[in-house]
Structure formats: structure tokens, C-alpha cells
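Cont'd.
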Amino acid sequence: MTDLSRDARSLVARARGNDGPSLQDRARIRAKLEPAWAAGIDRASAASSPELLRRWATAKALVLLAIASWSPSQPQPPASSEHLPPIAAGVAEVPVKPAAPSPEVSPAPLSASASAPVQLEAAAVRASGQLAQARRSTRASAHGLSHGAEAAGNSVARATDPKATLPNPKLPSAATSAAAAKLASATNTSGAVGSTGATRSTSGVAPSTPARPTRQAAPTRAMVALVNPQNQTAPTQSRTEFKPQAIDDELAWIGAAQEALQNHQPSLALRLVEQHSFRFPDGALTQERLVVHTLALCALERFTAARRMLEVLAQRAPDAPILARVRSNCGL
Amino acid sequence: MRSTAFLTPSQNPGAWPADRSVPMTLQVQQVYEAHFDFVWRTARRLGAHESQLDDVVQEVFLVVQRRLASFEGRSELKTWLFGITRKVVYSTLRRSGNRREVALGEDEELPDVSAPTAEMQLAADEDTRLLYALLRELDEDKRAVFVLSELEEMSGPEIAEALDLQLSNVYARVRAARQAFDAALRRYRAREARSP
């Protein structure tokens, strides 16, 4: 076989091994990747699993519903732990320690996940319309909204699946309910906690039928940690360990915070998102937490802090359509 | 000196990656720790510009994170990573439209090389810069095969696996890549001799 010339061999031998990265290069890229590793999944990879995508989408739909339904002019009723979900009740009853330093202060840039969610956001915006429609059409039934949230989430999942057809934004409520009913059986059999957050969100709408989450693990741990502050020394989510369960736990917290906001209890919502921030510093639903956090600050008329939070959100997802909606709703 | 690229593992164990059997519980962090250097230098050698390097390497490991569960260990982890890196680099270059644009001697940032003296540092930097410039004169296929055979010292079967080629095609491409590299170096030496 033709070999290299002596000059070329010599050059290759000299240059080989001289073009590796420095320790700083290794550390810099690692720092950028760590949020994705800690979350266990990024938005783009959610698309690879229908189940994960559905949970993502459900969380998205919950937050968008919170934005759509939240109005700063509505009076804020006194906080009460009655009819609150277990997480919220725990936070309301127990004095909360100041939250740990929030990662929102210096979010690590993550170009792939920051640029990817635009399509998902857009689909979620469409789906939130379905969710609201499901809410209107099934107001009498808490289960209806629960399933509506799931159906909306599922629609987002379908919308972001390149193999699936996009959802019709004007989907009739009957169709939404049918989809919800179909989904309900699947949800019940799989025990997915995507439904937990959605179910919880219904209790604010129909307090007479307090919906209990299908899985209690996250609330129980939350309660224990709140009652025993020493348990808060370490976040429950490892930064290096892959935990598919974590997204379920995150969804429970974000769902409870969203519900508190919807019930015009922004102080409670604030404490819940702070707890989420403490437990999941780089969680998969960090962006959703930032949205609820900003809205809660606005509701408390802490506009300077809300602006700061909005800037952090803008840094994480500069192109997200949700950004404009938060800004508009808050009047920032 | 004879190239060691196509020696068998027993003849040249150092050139034969040890991770033939990859545990299925492999985590992306482990892959990062073990193969970050490989991904970084492969991205540079395949033509990623310094300004694109961070994004390219980051994107490679995000792809690894997404696909690691589906990696069945039927191929070498290193060759699998090479395939991902290659696709990410070339798609980045296509997007930026500068696939073969950087001519020899343009002001690309020099690598961070620690050498005992400034002269040795300069010489090492010059060698690296020249190597990259010559690599850019090769077409995409020859560049990839040259990087694997001459710089990574991979075996023929490994290259065939990494580039999804028949073994006979690998040998033909390596031969062509070496000829092209030699020719580019000769042209460079000739220009160097003519310049004052």
C-alpha cells in the first residue's frame, strides 16, 4: 500500500497529540452539558419517547393554562389549606426555610435545548386552547378537566412528533373529551404522574371533588423535608444520576404551584416554586418554574424581582413564544 | 517508518481500543470523561472552526445522551462517536457555508499547547496549523479516512465500521487520501520555497 512520504509522516507524527483540548476546554463544555445531564432528558430527547413527551406536554399545558387564566385584577382570597393538594398544604402549614440559592441567577447556556423548544412551545400554545376549551365544556366534572389537560398534553406530543399530524387548534370540545376519555384508560393503567399534575389542577376548579394524586411519593417526601428542615440539606435530585422518576416529581410541584397561582394564592405559588428550585436546581421543568415564578412575583406586585426573573427566562429561551405572553400578562 | 494503522491488536495493542464490549449501563458522563479528547480533536481535524468547536462538541454529547440507550455495543464506542462527530461537524459546516473556505495561513486560533520553550511551542503550533490546513485541502471522504488511519491510528476494520465501508474500499481510500495529503504538502513546500 502507498505509504506517506517521509516529510508527511514526520509532520503527522509531530502534530499528532498536540491538538487536544485543555483542561479548561473540558471543564467549560462539561459545565454547559451538566444541566442536560442533571435533567436526564432535554427537550429534543423528549421527542424520542412518547411517554416523556406526553409528560412534557402536560406540564407545558398546565403552565400555559396558568398564564391564560391568570389576571392581576382579580382579588386574591385569603390563603387556606383547605382543598389544597398535599404539597401545597404542606407548604402552607409549615414555615418554609429560605430557598437555597436559585440556579436562575446564572443559568448555564445550553444552545440545543434553548433553541429547540420553539416548536414545542407553539404546539403547547395551541394545546392550551384545547385545554381551556375542555375546561369550559367539562366544568361540572373535575375529571373532565383532568382528562382535558392530558388530552391537551397528548396533542402537543402528537404535534411535536414528526410522524404525526398536527392538532387542529379548533378541535371541538366533544373531540377533546373523547380523546381525554381514551387517554384516561391508558393513564390509569400506566400510572403516569403526568396525570397527577393535571388531576391536581382540577381541585381548584371543583373543590367539592378533591382529586388525590395516583402516586404520593413526591408530596410525602416534600412534607417530610418541610417538617424536618435538616432534610433539606441536599436536593433530592442528583446532578449526575439519570432518574426518569424525577420528571414526575417535578411535575407534581409545578402542578401544585400552578394551581396555587390559579387560585389566586401567589404567596403559596412562590413558596412552591422555591421548593422546586431547591429540589431540582437544574430540573427538566426549570423553564416552566420560571414562568410560574414570574407570574407569582407579578401577582405580589414585586415587579423588580419579576423583571429579573423574566430576564433569566429570556436568557434560557430567548425565542420562546411564552416569553411574550408572560411579559404581556404581567405588563412588564 | 511503517504506518501502524493496520496492524492486528496483538501486534499493536495500543492502537486497538479496549472498549470492544461496552456495558449497557454506560452513562453519558462516563462517555464524556473517556472520550472528550477524542471528540474534540476529531471535530477540529474534520474542519470545525475554533469558533464553532464548543457548540459542535456540545451537540455531539447531546446526541450521545439521546442515543446512548439505543447503542447496542455492536460497534466500537469510539467509531460510533466518530460517526456522530462527523455528521455534526459536516452539518455545522454546511450551515455556516464554510466547508473548505479557510485557506492555509489564515488566522485560526492556535491550539493551547504546553511546551518547554517558546520556540518549541511555536514549532508545535506551526505543525498543527499546517496539518489542519493540509487536511482542509482533502475532500470530505479522504479527510475522514486520513484522520482515522494516520492520526487516530485505527485499524482497517475499525475504519470500515466507522465510515460504513467495505474493507477493500477502506484500503483504496486510505491510499488515495495519503496521495492527496502528500500532494498538498508538496504544493505547500513549493510555495514556501518560492516565498522570500
